[in-house]
Write a structure and sequence with these properties.
The protein is mainly α and 118 residues long. The chain folds into two domains: 66 residues; 51 residues, no CATH class. The chain is 69% helix and 0% strand. It contains four helices and no strands. Helix 1 runs antiparallel to helix 2. The longest helix has 26 residues. The chain is flat and about 60 Å long.
Length: 118
């Protein structure tokens, strides 16, 4: 076999330095966002920053940016499966009633707003 068939993509060290500095900045932004009261959007901001950091790690440190399309398809299938499981878990959480017959806060607010509309 030729040597070229087994050649891997070499990422310059400057790219890694840029990614690491971006991850540190995003981590500091996460800490800052934890102290700012955004109401219901605190979790949205925190998850958005975490998603950006995870994307950078997967793309550059796991070399997903430079892999064949079939590997990218497997990665996307895994992300789809995770999204499906999270959707089903959260759907179950919203519809739960605990052993005392008390609905969880998300469901209670939803059913109260639905009762006011009708």
């Amino acid at each position: 076999m030729s040597e070229q068939a087994h050649a891997e993509h070499v990422v310059p060290p400057g790219v890694y330095a840029g990614i690491i500095s971006t991850l540190v900045i995003l981590t500091l932004l996460t800490v800052y966002a934890a102290y700012v009261d955004l109401g219901r959007f605190n979790i949205v901001v925190a998850l958005g920053i975490a998603t950006m950091k995870a994307t950078l790690v997967v793309l550059f440190f796991m070399h997903a940016k430079y892999v064949p399309k079939r590997t990218k398809l497997v990665i996307m299938a895994g992300i789809f499966w995770l999204a499906l499981l999270l959707f089903m878990t959260l759907s179950d959480y919203v519809s739960r009633v605990d052993y005392r017959g008390v609905q969880y806060p998300m469901t209670r607010n939803f059913t109260a707003s639905m009762a006011q509309k009708s």
